[in-house]
Amino acid sequence: MVKNIDWSVPKGELAYFIDAEQEGKGFTSNAVELVKNYAFEDLKIEKLYIKIDPRNLGSKRVAINNGFEKEGYFKHEYRTGYGDVTDVERYGLVNNRSRR
């Protein structure tokens, strides 16, 4: 899903979750590709970003395989659903087609 859209840029956060039993099957990468294309082509968003727990190697692979690049590391940034506060790595992707 795309959330936290800032129409003044325009940019939005791409967020996803997958059940542990379905990890490693390519479902998340395929879904990210579809949502990315929808956001860029239909919503006319110029930049997407993903916030990832640094320990989540699978999520980093999904981001990188979809063209996202690491932009930064933020300490004590996000409260998980379990109540823990964790660091976050942010990955971003600019729609170069919109910059023509």
Automatic annotation (TrEMBL):
Entry-linked SUPFAM superfamilies: Acyl-CoA N-acyltransferases (Nat)
One Pfam family this sequence matches: Acetyltransf_3
Annotated ranges, domain N-acetyltransferase: 1-89
One of the record's GO molecular function terms: acyltransferase activity, transferring groups other than amino-acyl groups
InterPro entries for this protein: Acyl_CoA_acyltransferase (IPR016181), GNAT_dom (IPR000182), N-acetyltransferase (IPR051531)
Keywords: Acyltransferase, Transferase
Superkingdom classification of source: Bacteria
Protein family membership: Belongs to the acetyltransferase family. RimJ subfamily.
Record-given protein name: N-acetyltransferase domain-containing protein
